[in-house]
């Protein structure tokens, strides 16, 4: 089990044969900077899909040598996504990586039934953080894909996060389903009732490979002291490895608050498709994007079959 996100890079560098990224929309300096760093660090080779003139201009400005990379000209971002997915389908590439194509364009292509990348799960965003002042990592989901997930989607969100946890060494990750209180006082409050139902799914064997508890407030999920003061006992209370958000609003605010105020080391991946998807934010640093590529490489052997 890893204790720091930085260890994911080492795990990824050990994978052989070296995987190949299909980069959808490679015509920007920010994208090429990451692709060059990924290649130089021995993480992955890449196929660059996009406007080849824009790719060449960006490479010239950055002094990036394009000779190690195959290039495929695409007229627009949608075409670049489609071509990247076809490259993965044919075995020429292994992992889908977002370049200048938007997340919406990426997901639209992945969810196109004709291309064969859908599985029986919904897609979800999984983030892995270094916990400040502790030698451990924390997984947060979903902060980027599902806006108001229903119970079925939340089950898949849990399972996708558990797959990531297994890939980085957690044998039986502790999953906390978040709400604002621990007692189910009003069944009409979905964050409470959904947490209760997810716990029952775990108890009945519908969710496996982990232990699920909730509803928990954030402090009870992560702080042993808070859990003890509130009299909450359980395998997960105060020791959660995975925290599951009620909706994207809760997840995105927590995710960005951590980034702004704690500045932790981060990696993230979109799970639930036939291959992991690297979908970094434009505001992410180069090292965060590299960590995310590494996470996708490490997760890939755990991907879901069609």
- The unreliable regions are none
Q: What is the CA-based Rg, rounded?
A: 20 Å
The separation of the N and C termini measures: 28 Å
Count of helical regions: 11
List the domain count as a whole number.
2
- Measured by DSSP, the beta-strand proportion falls in 15-25%
Order of helices and strands: HEHEHEHEHEEHEHEHHEHEEH
**Estimated structural class:** alpha/beta
Please, what is the average pLDDT? 94
Largest sheet: number of strands, sense, barrel closure: 6 strands, mixed
Helix content: 40-55%
- What CATH calls the topology of the largest domain is Rossmann fold
The main sheet orders its strands as 8-7-9-6-5-10
Shape: elongated
Second-tier CATH architecture of the largest domain: 3-Layer(aba) Sandwich
E-strand count: 11
CATH class of the largest domain: Alpha Beta
């Amino acid at each position: 089990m890893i204790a720091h996100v930085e260890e994911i890079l080492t795990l990824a560098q050990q994978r052989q044969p070296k995987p190949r990224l299909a980069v959808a929309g490679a015509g920007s300096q920010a994208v090429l900077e990451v692709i060059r760093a990924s290649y130089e660090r021995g993480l992955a080779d890449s196929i660059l899909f996009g406007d080849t003139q824009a790719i060449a201009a960006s490479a010239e400005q950055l002094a990036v040598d394009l000779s190690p990379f195959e290039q495929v000209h695409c007229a627009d971002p949608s075409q670049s996504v489609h071509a990247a997915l076809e490259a993965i389908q044919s075995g020429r590439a292994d992992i889908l990586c977002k370049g200048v194509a938007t997340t919406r364009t990426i997901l639209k292509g992945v969810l196109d039934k004709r291309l064969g990348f859908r599985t029986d799960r919904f897609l979800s965003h999984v983030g892995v953080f270094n916990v400040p002042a502790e030698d451990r990592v924390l997984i947060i989901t979903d902060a980027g894909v599902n806006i108001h997930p229903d119970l079925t989607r939340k089950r898949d969100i849990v399972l996708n996060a558990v797959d990531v946890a297994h890939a980085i060494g957690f044998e039986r990750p502790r999953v906390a389903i978040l709400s604002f209180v621990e007692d189910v006082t009003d069944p009409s409050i979905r964050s409470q009732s959904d947490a209760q139902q997810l716990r029952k799914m775990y108890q009945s064997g519908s969710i496996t490979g982990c232990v699920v508890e909730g509803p928990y407030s954030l402090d009870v999920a992560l702080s042993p002291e808070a859990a003890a003061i509130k009299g909450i006992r359980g395998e997960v209370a105060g020791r959660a490895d995975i925290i599951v958000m009620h909706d994207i609003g809760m997840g995105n605010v927590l995710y960005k608050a951590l980034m702004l105020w704690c500045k932790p080391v981060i990696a993230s991946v979109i799970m639930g498709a036939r291959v992991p998807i690297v979908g970094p934010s434009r505001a992410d640093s180069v090292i965060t994007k590299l960590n995310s590529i590494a996470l996708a490489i490490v997760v890939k052997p755990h991907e879901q079959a069609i």
